[in-house]
Amino acid sequence: MDEVPRPDWESFETILSNFMENPEEAGLVFGMMIQVDPDAVVLKISNSLGSVHDTDYSRECKVALLARLLTNQDLGTNWNNLSVSSQSTLNCVLLDRIMLEESKAITTRICDIVSDLAPSLLPDNNWPELLPYLNKCFMNSTSNNCSRLCTFILYAQLVDKTDETVVGCVKDLHSLFLNILNNDDTLDDLDVRITATMAVIRFIQCVSSLNEKAQFQDLLPGMMRTLTDALSNNDLEDAAVAALNLFIELARNEPKFLRRQLVVVVGTMIEIAETKSLEEEIRILAVEFMLTLVEAKEKVPGMMKKVPLFTNTCFAILLNLTLDIKDEPRFHTAEPVWHSDEPSWHCTEKQHEVSGATKSCSFGLTCLKRLSIALGGKTVTPIAMEQLPSYLVAPEWEKRHAALLAIAQISEGSSKVMIRYLEQFVNMVLQSFHDPHPRVRWAAVHAIHQLLIHFCPHLQAQYHNQILPALAAAMDDRQNTRVQAFAAASVVIFCQFESPETIEPYVDGLLKKLVVLLQNDNQMVHEEALIALGAIADLSKEHFHKYYDFVMPHLKALLVNANDKSDEARGRNALQCISSVGMAVGKEKFRDDIKQVMDLLKLFQESQVKDFDTIPHILVAWIKICKVIGKD
Question: Could you tell me which residue, 442 or 58, shows the higher pLDDT?
Fold first, then answer.
């Protein structure tokens, strides 16, 4: 500070030049200078913005510096340190640059400065010229595109930050908005139109009166044309994405505003969603807009029914998104049955994960569930019955895979109506258990798994003679451990239906399959097999006596093995299964093995427990076994 007692105006331009080369160092100098004479520094920089001798880059750096000096961290202190005269001069300079500036980059930076200053100034009428000046700038036929662009950027930003202060001004601009948005004869002002579109969306959400909102509904066709034009222009793609996000916000907060122009608006979004040449993110945003409107049914009940064939089209779009899934050969074979799939899919440790799904696929699956929950089975189920059969017989495995996942996704929201068509859906799924592609077979098991959850106990009671043999057969799919593991996991879900008489005819066959799976080195398969075996024992209760001598030696061997190999996960799962079997058969049958099991459990606890999560499982096993011992 001693070296800079007052700003050295002779070297000021040199310091400005240095700022472009080393902004951090020059910024420190300006920071010291502004503390000595803030008025002189700010005015010197602002007055140099219009220099005809500067390059755009030079002027852009000056605007960045001005923004930094005025708004960095403590805006109030810096602004309040200026004299009233300097504040007024700076305001005028900024407004002049709005009218005269021809660089979009600089225009955007000026808008940021104005929108940071205005919220604290407008409420107390400390910048009375701003809003009239913006209107004048906009209505002036000689204004260039940059000044109009700046005007709309500021309208959008200030409506957000000042609410009614700016809303009252924008109300009077309806005809001007309409003229701009309908001016699609040329694309020269497309950036102005897309910015105007965003300004309108911001404005609508700040207006409290429904009547005032309604007066702007005739802007929607022009806004949608602007959006599609911007999407076809690479330079404005980012702006179009920002606009799409604002449309989603509008659909969530103000769905009634879209009601009169619904067919036009939704039609445009469908067109965007179906245009495969567009980026994935853009198509997803268009779908998100539609789903957001569907989920706004409480605010506007029945509104989407006004769009012809909307649900059919939306369901088809979502199905199409789920086709976008990666699949790479794991190995090649000359055999007729194709065994190729993606390595990451085959090797994943989670049997329920749709591995290889792209963002589009995952989003499509999520939206199928959302659509089903929002519209209900009465609307969605007939469409699914109409569209899915052709997918299930398509030559492309991705389509068969997508159809099965779709059945799983809609089962929750559509269960009340799907139950009427349950036989058809069960047949669709079970036929796919024999599909030549492993990922389709996995999807079939996944679908049955979900149906068992959402249609319990009806599905278990009515279709046990089809489902349990199919799951047992799926456990033989030795080359695809995910199919085996999911089949075992689905048996667990079946056992939640508390009717031992239903599962009893199949227990012998299921246990033989599960014991074979216990020899599998794949931890996922091994774990699910143990859980399934325990679930069958829990359900069978005293009926499990005749299987005890067949199962228990395998379980004790697993526990011994876990101690030898320090395999904590297998030991933990074996303990849980043994305790379930013991509870099922009771002390009399369990008597001869109790001491050995308790010794193994103690040894396992003392030597193998390293994972804190294992402790609760051991406690549960102790409690169950103690209950068995305590029985008369």
Answer: 442
302: left (phi over 0), alpha (psi -120 to 50) or beta: left
Residue 185 DSSP class: S
pLDDT score for 619:
61
d(CA 339, CA 440): 11
The full DSSP string for 364-418 is HHHHHHHHHHHH-HHHHHHHHHHHHHHHHT-SSHHHHHHHHHHHHHHTTTTHHHH
* pLDDT tens, position by position, 186-210: 445 788 889 889 988 988 888 878 8
Please tell me the predicted confidence (pLDDT) of residue 387: 97
Half-sphere exposure in the Cβ direction for 90 (13 Å, CA)? 29
Helix and strand counts by DSSP (H, E) for the chain: 33, 0
Give the other-Cβ count within 10 Å of 527's Cβ.
Answer: 20
Close Cβ partners of 463 (under 8 Å, ≥ 6 residues apart): 422, 423, 426
Token couple for 63: 């605007």
User: What pLDDT does 287 receive?
Assistant: 97
Kindly give, in sequence order, each residue whose CB lies less than 8 Å from that of residue 310, ignoring residues fewer than 6 positions away.
Answer: 266, 290, 304
Q: Which of 243, 223, 477, 209 is nearest to 339 (CA)?
A: 477
Q: What's the pLDDT at 340? A: 40
Beta bridge partners, 325, equal: 357
Q: Which residues touch 156 (CB under 8 Å, ≥6 apart)? A: 195, 198, 199, 202, 203
Convert the pLDDT of each residue in 128-173 to its tens digit: 888 888 877 767 655 677 777 888 888 888 887 776 666 666 666 7
Residue-wise burial string across 312-330, b where 16 or more C-beta atoms lie within 10 A, e elsewhere? ebbbbbbbbbbbbbeeeeb
Query: Which positions ≥6 away from 315 have C-beta within 8 Å?
Result: 368, 371, 380, 383, 384, 387
Distance CA 271, CA 277 (A): 11
- pLDDT: which is higher, 79 or 464: 464
Contact predicate 90/42, CB 8 Å: yes
Pair 435, 441: CB distance under 8 Å: yes
pTM of the predicted protein model: 0.82
Residue 346's contacts (CB-CB under 8 Å, 6 or more residues apart) are 330, 438, 480, 481, 482
- Boundaries of every domain in the chain: 1-127
Among 229-233, 263-267, 407-411, 464-468, the range scoring the smallest mean pLDDT is 229-233
